[in-house]
Amino acid sequence: MELNAGLACRRLSFRWPGRHTDEPLVLESVEAVFSTGTASLVTGDTGSGKSTLLHLLAGLIRPTAGEVWADGLPVSRWPSRHRDPWRQQVGIVFQHLALIPDLTVAENLLLPMIPRQIAWSRMQEEILRQLADADLSALAEAPTSALSGGQRQRLAIARALVARPRFILADEPTAFQDDHHAAQIRAQLCQSAREGAVVVICSHDPRLRSSDEIDRRYHLASATLHENFAHREAP
Amino acid sequence: MMPRTRYPSMAIWAAREVQRHAGRSMLLFACLTSLVFLIATALLFSQALDATWAHLLDQAPDLVVRRIDGGGWVPIPADDVVAYATGVPGVLDPTPRLWGVVPGPEGPVTVVASIAVVPESVLNGIKPPTIGQAVVGQGVARALSDKRLTLGIRNPLSVTVIDVFPADTGLATHDLVWMTPEDTRHLLGLAPDQASDLAVHLFRREEEQAIQADLAAAFPWPVRITDRTASALRHRTRAARLGGIAVVAGIPALLALLMIITGTVLDNNGQRAHWGLLKSLGWTTADIVRLQVNRALIVGIPAVMLGLASAYAAVFYPPAAGVTAFWITGGQHLAALTLVSSGAAVILLEIAALVGLPFLGTVFLTSVRAATGTPWAMLQADPWN
């Protein structure tokens, strides 16, 4: 298995802490490589473990067994003091968005930039660019709590992309979007992949499943991940 | 290469966080300010009292000789004692003093007839009284309804008050009445050649202990000799006692500290989910701790400055100083106190040690404890789950 470029899962297993060992694993011996410059889509039923897989790839939780490798480094084995700074290479879109409602739209975008040693002027440029890409320029100073569901989701995506991370992990990024904005988000994520990022999207959305822009497709079922080569849906 | 501007960004965001949690920040500010105020007031008062006493004692005689017998203090023959003391090597300028304590209109007052009893700086610029006149301290003046003062019971005397000692000499002159030697002798029942005690200056001040035996042997009757060190010790004991009162005053201060610590702990636990989100966005534990320390400094530094400034005003600014002195001493009237610059520096260091370090230490340790953990576990406490 190629472990040197992109994100790779090597015999990755996960069971929620505190659960009995006779309970089924959420993920079992998952083997996958999400390569640099590709946009990968992970599908699966609700509760199949898609979000858990993203959290494992983002280093938010540790696997029960197996490893996550990032650009040839076994990041899941690292202690927190090494994994925390590595996470600056990750941009994550949570399914529940996890925005801070009392901050403004622009301030939510500022959050990932603060610890990244970026000059204020560049921060402003990046924030303005992301606001424009997300159709949120007019709402920069609005409190996040004032946004609609779709706007919040676009803001969560903009927050994941604003620091130009190496690994982009998006959980149901188009769930609340109309067709226009869903296509816009898909284009944004795929463009990031073309620029050299590793993009992993977990979604049920048929608009993503049927997209030609997605490079690789996986299906998660029964705790195992399979690559799906017949990606075109029947009309 | 990216410019290294992490610290200003963090500091700016810390200021935003202070504004974002304005209520908590204000509570923290108020607690810290009152804590610093209470402790600094007690420390400044005690230190300033000590410094003021030391200043006054510096002008006092090195030794004071009193004649005693089985009944206690007895007057001394003024001319003879000067002759006896002059014969002792190292003694300079022995001066008989005429003074005593007599009943006044509102309690005992100290009557003096010679400037040797009171430091010269206290009497500076005040016109000496003539027969039938007196200069009085602030405490005595307050009890008068007109310019007439009647003193004593056995040999009562009525004099006209011509002046009042300045308020800033109150430590030495609060209950003082300065009058002529003739009036004083009449009031104290002394013969014309008698004095109350003998003030002695020494050629070498450090010999005040060694010379006492020779000086006592020079008189044909028993004497009690008081040196400056003993006086200073008395005053320092008093300052320390007031410091003890300050400790009692510190109880609410400690309660306030407890509130601050508790508030900080609750604040940090409540923010655990928020910090989990920050960590998932690329913040490290060190970044989060740095943010919290910045927040603490943004609130803490102005709070400490305001607390110190308020304490300074409460101890040295006349209207407030009276209230403070009343609070700490339980009603004693005190002079306007002076602060020595080295004393102020010590107070600043003490405040830093007593308040600043525990506060910052609590913020640091609590933040480290709360921010250490997997981001996912921290995120579970959040409202979006």
Order of helices and strands of chain A: EEEHEHEHHHEHEHEE
Q: With helices defined by DSSP (H or I, 4 residues minimum), what is the helix count of chain B?
A: 14
Straight-line N-to-C gap of chain A: 35 Å
Mass-distribution shape of chain A: globular
CATH class of chain A: Alpha Beta
If you had to describe this structure to a student in words, what would you say it looks like?
The complex is a heterodimer of chains A (235) and B (385). In chain A, strand 6 (167-171), helix 6 (179-194) and strand 7 form a beta-alpha-beta unit. Chain A is globular, with a radius of gyration of 17 Å. In chain A, helix 4 crosses helix 5 (149-161). Chain A has a 6-stranded mixed beta sheet with strand order 5-6-7-3-8-9, with helices on both faces. In chain A, strands 2-1-4 form a 3-stranded antiparallel beta sheet, covered by helices on one side. Chain A has 235 residues and is of the alpha/beta class. Chain A has a single domain, classed as P-loop containing nucleotide triphosphate hydrolases (Rossmann fold, 3-Layer(aba) Sandwich), CATH 3.40.50.300. Chain A has helices at 50-57, 80-86, 105-110, 120-133, 149-161, 179-194, 206-209, and strands spanning 7-14, 27-34, 39-44, 65-70, 90-93, 167-171, 198-202, 216-221, 224-227. Chain A contains 7 helices and 9 strands. Chain B has 385 residues and is α+β, with helices and mostly antiparallel strands. Chain B has 2 domains: 8-56 and 234-379, no CATH class; 99-189, Barwin-like endoglucanases (Beta Barrel). Helices cover 58% and strands 16% of the residues of chain B. Chain B contains 14 helices and 13 strands. Chain B has helices at 6-20, 22-58, 78-86, 120-123, 138-142, 170-173, 181-188, 211-218, 228-270, 272-280, 285-316, 318-329, 341-371, 375-379, and strands spanning 63-69, 72-74, 76-77, 91-97, 99-104, 107-112, 133-136, 148-151, 157-164, 176-178, 194-195, 197-202, 223-227. In chain B, the strands form 3 sheets. A 6-stranded mixed beta sheet of chain B has the order 5-6-10-7-9-8. In chain B, strands 1, 2, 4, 12 and 13 form a 5-stranded antiparallel beta sheet that branches. Chain B is elongated, with a radius of gyration of 31 Å. The chains are: A alpha/beta (235), B alpha+beta (385). Chains A and B meet through helix 2 and helix 4 of A and helix 1, helix 10 and helix 14 of B.
